[in-house]
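Problem 12. The chain below contains 395 residues. Write out its predicted structure in token notation.
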Amino acid sequence: MITTETARTGLSDSARKETLSLRVYSFSAYSTAAMVVSFIPLYFLDRGFSEQEIGIIYSTGPFISIFANIILGIASDKYRTIKKLLMLLLLGQLVMISMLFPTHNFALVCLVMMGFYFFQTPINPLSDSLLLLSSQYTGTPYALIRIFGSLGFAVTAYSIGLILKHIGTSWTLPLAMTTIAITLALTTRIKDYQGSVRKIDFSGFFKLVRQKDVLLFFLILLTISIPHRMYEGFLAVTMRHMGASDSLVGLAWLISALSEIPVLFLLGKFGHKFKELPLLMLASVMYAVRLWLLSEIQDPRWVIATQAMHSISFGIYFSTALRYLSRLIPDEFRASGQAMYAVVWTGLAGVISGMFGGFVYEQFGREAFFRMGSAFALLAAASFLLRYLLSRHER
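Solution.
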């Protein structure tokens, strides 16, 4: 006869094992993200592509993510599965990466990378949904599993940088395939929790954009998202032009990923005590300082110091913007608001920073590129401050 205590112990053991599996999976999944952000741009640079071409390649990801996330969200709702979709996406990534080996034509590379991003960009939203659903069973909060994703990004960015420094950038694709294959194997070890990604209510978009405060927020959001994507997309290329090794590039990403963890933790506990708009202004000012410093720095080792500023710029911005959005938008339009946030933050900003930013970088140089980004960030800071002062006056 199984007693209540025995059943509870069995459930506890099972929940601990599942939590461990999810943490290892999250660590590995974000390892691939580190490869994509940190070293794929360097791989294309070493293959002879120009900054403008790399910007175009980089912009295909945010563009295709708009459609990929909608399609995968609908598929998850219809077929009531996340695990199987994750496995399909990872298999698709392996196929697309393998197609890059014999591909040298720029147009074909763009098509292959567009296919890769179609399979890569929905991974994080679906994984987040899986982690949120799992907490109901394991009793482990989402943040205590997701933090292993940040650790995976940080560790991979640094360790792969050290490896590529010794064996060469030509090994970037095989290493990327290795991280994807490991993640695919780990996916078989996690449960497929019943639930669905929240559907996008398209009618809500039109109701939202008619609200002045909401539309203004998304316009300011786009203004600060552009410099963030500029920094993210061209940091590795900039450091390489300064003479940095792959290991130094990896160290830069390690510092930024680790720096955001304590800030996100503290904001999760105490952020509600502070007004959102002043915090967003502070984050925007920090973005402006980071990008301006990159326009002046000549030694790549000093870039490492600017990466520690990621804790204030992105760390404060990411959690605070979502908190402000949840307060600004009524519950019945919450899914539409989050979809608009993703489209602006990832899609529109990525396309603009990749295509237009790549053109500016190649034609006018690094200094003009990052000073333009700094100007965007200052404009966003001023807009957040003005919006805060007006909101106080309206009360």
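Discussion. The chain is about 85% helix and 0% strand. Students who got a different answer should revisit the alignment rule from Section 12.3.
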